[in-house]
Every structure is written in structure tokens, then in C-alpha cells.
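Working notes for the structural subgroup meeting. M.R. asked for a predicted model of this chain before we commit to crystallization trials. I am recording the input and output together here so anyone reviewing the notebook later can reproduce the run.

Input as submitted:
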Amino acid sequence: MSALVAAYYRLSHLIRELMKFGVVGGIAFVVDVAVFNLVLHATDKPLTSKTVSTVVATTVAYVGNRFWTFRRRTHTGVRRQYLLFFVLNAVGLAIALTCLAVSHYVLGFTSRLSDNISANVVGLALGTTFRFWSYRRFVFPEPQQVSGGQPPPR
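Returned structure, recorded in C-alpha cell form:
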């Protein structure tokens, strides 16, 4: 039991970040799916719809992650961070678009349900894994350690 408690304390920071990331991601997911389906209904263009919905959801996710999930991490300026965040989300978008394109155009699954499953289940799961890793590593890195192994004061 004490080993589990010790592991929890070592990993508690990561667990809290992951939980907050999940909440922000859940909100962004609702925005993404709603915008995707609204644009898809209006245009009947699945790739365009996914692109528009991802841009809107990216902005929502950036605000939530910067000011809540990763608020205690290093911040380098809103413009630089948002640009990097957006570029990494473009990679996440490419992952979702690839899943959607393969499903819709290669495999011939053209129903709205199929489009939603490929883009918003399979593509989302793969893209989210990439996003969490890349945000922690590149957008919101840990503060630099100073001599003595302590992070610099805030």
C-alpha cells in the first residue's frame, strides 16, 4: 500500500494535469463536434467541416490549457505559444483528417455516422495522445531547473 501512495505522490502532478487536460479536451470536443456537424450540414463537405471545427476547438482548448491545465508551467508569450499550439494542433488535425479521408474516400463509409466515428472517435483518440505529449513537451514545458535541482521561483 505504501508503494502505491509513494507512486501517487510522485505522479500526482501528472495525474492532475491529465485530468485537467481531459476536462478542457472534453469541452473542446463538444465544440468540435457541434461545429463539425453544423458546417457539414450547411456545406456537405466533410474535410472542410473538420478543418473549420478544429480551428474553433483549438482556440477553446488553447485558452483552457494555458490558463488552467498548464498555468504553473513556463509561458513564453501568448502569440508564440498560440502559434506553436496551433501548429501542433495542425498535426492533430492531419491525424483526424487522415482517418476521415481513409474511411470516407478509401473504404467508402460515407454516412454521417461513419464520418463522425472516423473523425471524432478514431482520429480524436490518436490526435489527443499526440497533443498531450506535444503540449507538455513543446508548448508548456517544465520550468528550467536552477542549480540545486529546484525550479526557479515564480
